[in-house]
Write a structure and sequence with these properties.
Length: 249
């Protein structure tokens, strides 16, 4: 296994989830984070350096709050009747396995082929089955061609969908508008979209396209969950806004 498989960055986030899941008062339970870490090491993947590990620990409260917020978003979407979920850049978070999904729900996970191959191999090796009624892995380029790959795997663009864009926007070199153009084109009224964003550009764009938007800043979210933030450790993370939007037209 090499870092070209996309495992390295996903592994760093898994380390943060492991830290959050093992906290004294955890916001979520992710028993699979350690499973993925152990499996990656056994396959020859190196863990992050001490410096990187220290930086991961420095944003543990932020990462835990982010995970909790997206978990609650999906649970609420299911409670409001949405049965089709799409997780962009799913990485090694095992939401399809660990969340209490409503019966009849389909979860599509889009990510690099190497990441999804590793993830599903490890889960099969440990005898773990998704908790969702239908789980669909969609190996695809996250910046081009993923809509076609998603449709080819059975995605129904006439059905209201809950989308999640977590940890992806910093890697979108040409700006997020093309990504959201594609999501918008595949989302009928009633669809929902959760985004980890920086600045007001995403909110402004969604509002212009007829989405009803609510937001909460990272400091406020962490206060809600009883987690303190440290600007010196979290760097730009504390400038993040969490966006929950519903398409109204």
């Amino acid at each position: 296994m090499t870092t070209h498989d996309g495992i390295a960055s996903a592994l760093a986030v898994a380390l943060a989830r492991r830290s959050g899941s093992h906290a004294d008062c955890p916001l979520f339970d992710d028993p699979y984070a350690q499973v993925f870490i152990d499996a990656a090491v056994s396959r020859g993947c190196q863990l992050p350096t001490d410096e990187t590990a220290a930086r991961i620990n420095g944003i543990a409260n932020y990462a835990s709050s982010r995970t909790k917020w997206f978990d609650e978003y999906f649970i609420a979407a299911g409670a409001h009747g949405l049965e089709q979920m799409v997780i962009m850049a799913a990485g090694l978070d095992a939401r399809a396995w660990r969340l209490p999904w409503v019966s009849g729900t389909t979860v599509f996970e889009i990510d690099q082929p190497g990441v999804l191959k590793f993830k599903n191999e490890v889960m099969r090796e440990h005898g773990e089955s998704p908790a969702v009624s239908r789980y669909v892995a969609v190996p695809a380029d996250l910046f081009d061609g993923w809509p076609e790959a998603l449709r080819a795997r059975g995605f129904d663009s006439s059905e209201p969908t809950a989308w999640a864009v977590e940890g992806l926007l910093p890697y979108v070199a040409d700006g997020p508008h093309l990504l959201f153009d594609r999501i918008h084109a595949m989302s009928p009224p009633g669809s929902r979209l959760a985004v980890e964003a920086v600045g007001t550009g995403v909110v402004d764009w969604l509002t212009e396209q007829g989405w009803l938007v609510t937001t909460i800043g990272a400091p406020e979210l962490m206060t809600r969950y009883g987690r303190c933030g440290d600007h010196s450790e979290a760097d730009a993370s504390m400038d993040t806004t969490f966006v929950d939007a519903t398409r109204g037209r």
